[in-house]
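@channel sequence for tomorrow's demo:
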Amino acid sequence: MCVLREFSDQATLVAALAQDVARRLKEELARQDRTVLVVSGGRSPVPLFQALARQVLPWERVTVTLADERWVPAEHPDSNEALVRAHLLQGAAAAARMAPLFTGALTPEQGAPAVCAALAELPRPFCRVILGMGEDGHIASLFPGAAELAEGLTTEAAALALHPPRAPHPRLSLSLRALLDTRDLVLMISGPAKRRVLEQALEEGPVEDLPVRAILRQTAVPVSVCWAP
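structure tokens (generated this afternoon):
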């Protein structure tokens, strides 16, 4: 259920995806009172966040949460929550509710139960999950080589702590099960290097080597891969 959508450049991808996300949110809100958009952090989605913030929506009925979070306070420069607040929850979109993953606990292991409880209170399935992909094939914080990767791919829990082998901060990530508890999923990537990783991920091979394979191979949820040079 994976569809590849190719765009001529990043600006065209961002404009089309922002309009599509807004349309999906409006359709969902026509059926129910509230809905949830799950986004990823990092610098790549910033233009999308800025374009989404300009979309005309009943933002007060939208909850935004994260696919993963570095275990740092919201005021830390590496915080995904801070990134979303600075670039998406602006203007009219500031009316949206933010459901953060960082709890203030000393470790993500200590914070995970509270996050799972908070996620259980959100409307399911999510309206849409928007993911990026690293050049190592990781999605959210499901990194190859992480000791907790197998748990992240199989657990029934909505979130778990992970310690990526080459990342500066411990993480809390939605599990594969939670990422797939959505009406549809978008994988947003750009550049030739990530296109090569995508093509490799579509070939035979262990999910543990390229965790993105877990979403590309499943058949329960439609996946759109949006790529631009």
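heads up for whoever presents: Strands lie at 2-6, 35-39, 62-66, 68-70, 97-99, 128-131, 159-162, 171-174, 185-190, 223-228.
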